[in-house]
Specification:
Its EC number is 2.7.7.19. This protein has three domains: 20-194, Beta Polymerase, domain 2 (2-Layer Sandwich); 281-462, Hypothetical protein af1432 (Orthogonal Bundle), CATH 1.10.3210; 469-519, no CATH class. It is built from 25 helices and 13 strands. The radius of gyration is 30 Å and the shape is elongated. The protein has helices at residues 18-37, 39-51, 61-67, 83-91, 159-163, 188-194, 203-209, 212-223, 230-238, 248-259, 265-274, 277-280, 282-285, 300-317, 324-332, 337-340, 354-368, 373-385, 390-395, 404-414, 418-427, 434-458, 469-476, 482-498, 503-519, and strands at residues 56-59, 74-79, 97-98, 106-112, 131-138, 143-145, 148-152, 174-177, 182-183, 196-197, 227-228, 342-343, 349-350. Helix 15 (324-332) crosses helix 18 (373-385) and helix 24 (482-498) packs across helix 25. It is of the alpha+beta class and 520 residues long. The chain starts with 17 loop residues before the first helix and ends with a helix.
Amino acid sequence: MPSSPTRRADSPVGPPAAGVERERREAQRKAVAELVRVGPALDRLSAAFTDAGHQLYLVGGSVRDALRGELGDDLDLTTSARPDEIERLLRGLSRAVWTIGKEYGTVGCRLAADSGPGGTAGNAGTDEPREWQVEVTTFRADVYRAESRKPVVQFGDTLDGDLIRRDFTVNAMAVSLPDRTFVDPYGGLDDLAAGRLRTPATAEQSFSDDPLRMLRAARFATRLQLAPTPEVLAAMTAMAERLSIVSAERIRDELTKLLLADRPRVGLDLLVRTGLADVFLPELGALRLERDEHHRHKDVYAHSLTVLDQAIALERERGHAPDLVNRLAALLHDIGKPRTRRFEPGGKVSFHHHDVVGAKLARKRLTALRFPSDVVEAVSDLVALHLRFHGYGDLAGSDAEWTDSAVRRYVRDAGDQLERLHILTRADCTTRNQAKATRLRRAYDELEHRIDLLAEQEELDAIRPDLDGNQIMALLGIPPGRAVGEAYRHLLEQRLEHGPLGPERAEAELRAWWAARQAG
């Protein structure tokens, strides 16, 4: 049966608390400033639509972001006009119009604001024209069916009918144009001020209509620092399995947005606690291993989230933009532990080869979620390599140390993931033992220093034998074939073991190897 919107019965009643009232006033102040900033674009749009007899509202995330003082150059609007009329009006305002979403009622354009005599709106202190990316959508009154999250598109006639269909109250606010009247029938402003995440209709109906909204709840909890209400939490937990009707690609996109947030830990933990993660990333929840009664091993789940936090901090310290591969590797680096856990004599717990097992699990899971192949390979390689340094760390402070050969192999195996491996390995230190943490940090500082020195001397980023395949064939007088590959690998091993050999020594090594091979 088609679903119809049901209004919530648990909206807060009575006057807001003093703290919430202060937050409301501050949000309104920010919104006024933001609307003044984008006023030229809104004025041009509202003039066109109202002159044609249509209602027009700034809506959804644009209003929410304006209230937070974060409105960017993307403007979302809704209108009583139908799609053909939206397109006609926008073409009268812009030469850059797109209709990709027209069947769903959305037409977009790039809109330059008219600043008056100059004809363009410049950024402060510059002559650069200011542009906004605008999307205008007809009021929607969609019908959802139980077997699909894709609605049967129906256009509506009222703003209220459009707003109740939206995912959360903080996205169900609007500002009418041109008069700038604030429209908030479901208490979104109070929820934003109180740090609360609610749905306009009942949470059960909202998530039944579109289960992907449960993942968006985790993202908004992270990005907007909003706490889901008990009703939202209960619905997410009870309806987690409904997420199975959502495509892997859409789940991947939401997970990516969450991971690239400043503090994804809150949202990830929410996904695990509600059971949503079990539907698409069960290896994450599986990290909550039952601790042994003597607490002789760390909480692997909490450790993994802390490694993610520390990897994000290191990204910033080392001057990198948010990096999906880095964050996936940090989150998944220990997912092989549940499969490899063993209780040893004396009460110790071991996870032998969890790096190898984890790399296979990461590749399988990320492939199932339709991540690009380069992301899958990079993450699985990092998981496989994340323990490699610890042999070096174990030697730090003793008379022994890694040979130059071992350092070259470390760099060779990391390949173009070396910087990410540096971040992951450093982030993986979560011990509370300050002496041990300091020793590991100094050991890795030393390893990075040695890598830099060898890189200057030997071009480590392009390790290859001193002779290429053509030179090998010419010197040995052999045609292309398996023997050439074997010779190449032998010279590569010599290069890794001894550093650059030079042409003469490389030729001597090659001829000696060939003579021994022939004799054998």
